[in-house]
Write a structure and sequence with these properties.
Blueprint: H1 3-14, E1 17-21, H2 28-44, E2 49-52, H3 71-75, E3 78-82, E4 100-105, E5 116-119, H4 126-136, H5 145-158, H6 169-178, H7 185-193, H8 197-208, E6 211-212, E7 217-222, H9 224-229, H10 234-237, E8 252-258, E9 264-270, H11 276-280, E10 285-286, E11 290-295, H12 298-314
Parallel strand pairs: 1-2, 1-3, 3-4, 4-5, 7-8
Antiparallel strand pairs: 6-7, 8-9, 9-11, 10-11
Helix pairs in contact: 2-4, 2-5, 4-5, 5-7
């Protein structure tokens, strides 16, 4: 058993109350790993009090509802954060007010927060990492059908339905084990594929307003007025992030989404050239081919796009 896994199991065993958190604007893996761990802990330790925290209202709210947490909840609890690379993105600023803090993730471990960290960047998803923790636990942690359903959804989401290169042979082994449990995998895939009419129109907007350089670097800006026109929020806008990648002449791309404070959320993606260093330059980070950052204004947007162009041009 891995030393970090052993430490995590000791912390779980020694705490009566546990809170599970994830990152802001959650994607399927953030919710899948959070809700999956929640169900694993409830099933394995029925006598413990397990809660989940974060903002409700995501376009993925069908996956599960968060608890309303008090300061006292945190003061008496072990806090476990899944799928969150750095502390500013944790979806509750009280994350460090618990009795102890655990980080479980698959992003590069640039922000080494937590009393114990179990981070596997080679994993397809944090949901896959959780499966590995359970498999190492010597049956101390157990997976039921509810937990398997959530972990499966997380893996499907973060592998782009197994289209991305992060889907390894081990990923398929994990999925094979998860599917021995009683849940409808096809319904999850169908639900993850669903979009609203507004999201469909926004996809058309992105393609219509996409700037593509000769090198294959692409950019689109989604302003608040556009989100309002299509009756969408920032979480719902996330469904368009992968759209430019379907174009054969696009090698790497960035989608800027304006926030309510008029700054921008930055979504960087690439087919081969590494783009995570660009994200780090702008208060962000993430995977080599999929990262996020923040930008203050349109001048910074222009700077990020220039960095993306240089990255694509220099990549061989």
């Amino acid at each position: 058993m891995n030393d970090q896994v052993q430490q995590i199991l000791k912390l779980i065993s020694s705490h009566q109350q546990i809170i599970v958190l994830r990152h802001q604007h959650p994607d399927p893996d953030a919710l899948g790993s959070q809700l999956g761990l929640y169900e694993i802990l409830k099933f394995s330790y029925p006598q413990k009090q397990i809660k989940i925290g974060g903002t409700n209202g995501s376009s993925l709210s069908w996956m599960g509802k968060m608890d309303e947490l008090t300061d006292q909840d945190f003061a008496n609890s072990l806090v476990i954060v899944t799928d969150t690379a750095n502390t500013p993105r944790i979806d509750d600023e009280r994350y460090n007010q618990g009795l102890a803090l655990v980080k479980i993730d698959h992003h590069p471990d640039d922000d080494q927060y937590g009393d114990v960290r179990y981070v596997i960047p080679e994993a397809s998803s944090s949901s896959e990492v959780l499966w590995d923790i359970v498999s190492q636990s010597k049956n101390e942690l157990k997976i039921n059908s509810k937990a398997a359903r959530y972990l499966y959804a997380g893996i499907v989401g973060d592998t782009g339905r197994f289209l991305y290169s992060n889907a390894s042979s081990h990923t398929f082994e994990v999925v094979s084990n998860l599917m021995t449990h009683d849940f409808d995998a096809s319904k999850i895939a169908a639900r993850l594929s669903e979009i609203t009419l507004g999201q469909g129109r926004l996809q058309g907007y992105v393609l219509e307003h996409l700037t593509i350089s000769p090198s294959g670097a692409a950019m689109a800006i989604i302003y608040l007025d556009t989100l309002r026109e299509y009756q969408l929020n920032m979480d719902q806008a996330h469904t368009v992030v992968s759209v430019p990648g379907h174009l054969s002449n696009v090698k790497a791309w960035v989608i800027f989404v304006q926030k309510r404070d008029l700054s921008f959320r930055v979504h960087l993606r690439s087919k081969d050239a590494p783009i995570n260093e660009i994200a780090k330059n702008h208060h962000g980070g993430g995977h080599v081919l999929a990262s996020g950052a923040d930008a203050e204004d349109e001048r910074e947007l222009s700077q990020i796009y220039k960095e993306l162009e240089r990255t694509v041009e220099n990549y061989k």
